[in-house]
Design goal:
The complex is a heterodimer.
Chain A (H helix, E strand, L loop, with lengths): L1 H35 L8 H25 L3 H10 L9 H15 L1 H13 L1 H7 L5 H4 L9 H9 L15 H33 L5 H52 L12 H5 L6 H13 L32 H6 L4
Chain B lengths: L1 H35 L10 H24 L1 H11 L9 H15 L1 H13 L1 H7 L9 H4 L3 H9 L13 H35 L5 H51 L22 H13 L13
Helix pairs in contact in B: 1-2, 1-5, 2-4, 2-5, 2-6, 3-4, 3-10, 4-10, 5-9, 6-9
The chains are: A mainly alpha, B mainly alpha.
């Protein structure tokens, strides 16, 4: 158990820093994704807005959901939320705490994407280039064009190579204007997010500090309990499997002896543990039969009581072969009402 | 207990250095943010000043708030400030000390941003090119008032078609950059002198009070960490006991329902780890009970069994 204790202590002390690490990695991944993404404005009147706003808003949504998916605690929250009450009451404050802390961490990568997109400016330039105020920014002497034609010309602002509206409004002027607006929005967004984070963090000790300590303790407890339970079940499964397989081999060996009707050669007294470990299977044919039997007819998940301890573990000393299926089924039936 | 002692010593010696490290990282991040930010002055009369001054002052506010958020001690200080007195009196000097040390550390990154911005000069050129007196510069002296505003506003944009070959543009740009850099260096000098004086003259005033405040602020910080560590340790032991009791209660239930004689002194290999659960149905029942009826959070019953 000492090994488990050390592992649990590592997880517990580092749980917060582990989750913060994942959070930071996702934020970096989101900046990397943005710089690797090849932004390609369509430069067509109705498609620009959809493309620009889509690139601004859809990846953050994906990153938010990804933040939840990558968080191990989501299944823990769902389990605690849906479990029947049983002998242990449910505390909604604990569930709220778990959900809030997960949502806060999942919000960071989307916020980084939106900030980087706004500060870069390409997305807003693409989306709103048709709304540039031509009257104030444009050249006074421009040919009279219909509204649709003006829209078409303005839509090409992000694509410098095909822009043909220098008489209407200079490309650099429009791009500078749109980028200025985009960057102002970006900085305001970052300021808003930071202020919200600051308020959330600093107002908590002023109200409900005791409730917070309680929720935090019990949410950690639920997490640790689940991990410990999984570890204990794994230990149990290991022991179960060990005994099951041992009994399989012993059963095999007994069957073989019964089939061949000859007394097994007693192992010499000084063969020791090696002979014991061979469990009566000492030639190729027997081993092949054991392997075939393991594949064709796995033993039932039902351990029978062990044979009385013999000196060298050989079951072939006049003991009746124990058939694993029969005796304990009755006891199983008693509480299978669940 | 030795393990705890080592951990305490680590936290004691490194609490200050952890905070200084975060402070330095934020300052580096602020320089990196400035260099990677694509400054693009709008070059329009009404927008220049707002953009230039906005870039100079809004990110420092963000960096200051980040400095407060990332500093663990700010939470500790707030908790100490808002807690009910209870059996322990509150010492305002300690809270003031913690507040001042937090604010000092949080101010480093914003100051770095402002100084870097001023030394680079682009922000000031963008913000104040429209406020220049056109008569001082040959290229703008004989232009009508309306047009001169437009022209001056375009000074920060070197590639604009009107400004490409304008020598007066370079003159205005150099003039504003000179002012900007002078301001930047002056601010840096004043701040460093202030920091130097503060550190040198501090021992002359209230050294004893300062030592006390520093000791107790460290103490509060460490006490908080140890409390969290102890809670974690406790919840782990609690969970361990709870699960053991659950498995034992399952074992007892199985013994009650089964007809087999109790096996005394079973020496079977690995059987003692199985808690008497030796059957697929028994395992399924255990798992189902774990979900449908989690045991109560009460491990005191162990002693009553």
């Amino acid at each position: 158990m000492d090994k488990f204790r050390m592992i649990f202590q590592f997880f517990q002390s580092n749980q917060e820093s582990f989750m913060n690490g994942i959070c930071g990695i996702m934020a970096l991944a989101s900046t990397q994704m943005y710089s690797a993404f090849d932004f390609n404005c369509p430069c067509l009147p109705h498609y620009n807005l959809a493309y620009g706003l889509g690139i601004l808003l859809v990846p953050p949504f994906i990153l938010f959901l990804l933040g939840f998916v990558l968080n191990n605690n989501i299944s823990m929250l769902a389990e605690e939320w849906r479990r029947p009450q049983g002998q242990r009451g449910k505390d909604p404050a604990v569930l709220r705490y778990m959900f809030c802390s997960m949502a806060q961490r999942a919000m960071i990568a989307p916020a980084v994407w939106v900030s980087v997109t706004l500060l870069d400016g390409k997305s807003i330039t693409c989306a709103f280039c048709t709304s540039v105020p031509v009257e104030s920014l444009g050249n006074a002497s421009h040919p009279r064009l219909s509204q649709g034609e003006i829209q078409q010309v303005l839509a090409r602002i992000p694509c410098k190579e095909i822009y043909n509206g220098q008489q209407l409004i200079a490309n650099e002027v429009a791009v500078r204007y749109l980028r200025c607006i985009s960057q102002a929005l970006g900085w305001c967004f970052v300021l808003l997010m930071t202020t919200l984070a600051f308020l959330v963090r600093s107002l908590r000790p002023c109200f409900s500090q005791a409730a917070f300590l309680k929720s935090r303790y019990w949410s950690h407890y639920i997490d640790i309990e689940r991990k410990l339970f999984d570890e204990t079940c794994a230990e149990h499964a290991r022991s179960f499997a060990k005994v099951c397989i041992q009994q399989f081999f012993e059963g095999m060996s007994t069957d073989l002896v019964a089939a061949r009707c000859h007394l097994p050669r007693k192992a010499p007294a000084d063969a020791g543990e090696t002979a014991e470990k061979l469990l009566g299977i000492t030639d190729q044919g027997t081993m092949n039969m054991a392997l075939k039997s393991w594949h064709r007819c796995k033993p039932p998940l039902h351990l029978h009581p062990p044979a009385l301890p013999t000196g060298n573990g050989w079951a072939g000393e006049g003991q009746p072969p124990t058939h694993p299926s029969a005796p304990r089924r009755e006891t199983a039936a008693y509480y299978s009402w669940v | 207990m030795d393990r705890f002692r080592m951990i305490f010593q680590y936290f004691q010696s490194n609490s200050e250095s952890v905070m200084n490290g975060i402070c330095g990282l934020l300052a580096l991040a602020s320089v990196k943010m400035y260099t990677s930010f694509d400054f693009s002055c709008p070059c329009l009369p009404q927008y220049n000043m707002a953009y230039g001054l906005g870039i100079m002052f809004v990110p420092p506010i963000i960096l200051f708030l980040c400095g407060l958020i990332l500093n663990r001690q700010s939470l500790v200080m707030l908790e100490e400030w808002r807690r009910p007195p209870g059996c322990r009196k509150k010492d305002l000097a300690v809270i003031r000390y913690m507040c001042s040390s937090i604010v000092q550390r949080a101010m480093v990154a914003p100051v770095v941003w402002i100084v870097v911005t001023l030394l680079d000069g682009k922000c000031l050129i963008c913000a104040f090119s429209g406020s220049m007196d056109p008569n001082k510069f040959v290229g703008f002296a004989n232009v009508s008032t309306v047009q001169v505003q437009q022209l001056l506003a375009k000074v920060p944009c070197k590639d604009d078609e009107l400004m490409r070959n304008n020598t007066s543009r370079k003159a205005v740009s150099r003039y504003l950059r000179c002012w900007s850099q002078a301001l930047g260096w002056s601010i840096l000098l004043i701040l460093i002198i202030a920091a130097f004086l503060a550190r040198w003259l501090r021992p002359c005033f209230n050294q004893a009070t300062l030592l006390q405040a520093r000791h107790w602020s460290n103490y509060i910080d460490i006490e908080q960490k140890i409390f969290e560590e102890t809670c974690c340790e406790h919840s782990r032991l609690f969970a361990h006991k709870c699960i053991l009791h659950f498995f034992e209660s399952m074992q007892q239930e199985i013994k009650l329902h089964s007809f087999s004689l109790p096996r005394e002194g079973e020496g079977a290999k690995g059987e003692e780890d199985l808690w008497g659960i030796t059957d697929q149905d028994q395992v399924n029942k255990l798992l189902k009970t774990w979900y449908y009826e989690k045991p109560p959070l009460d491990v005191s019953q162990a002693h009553q069994r």
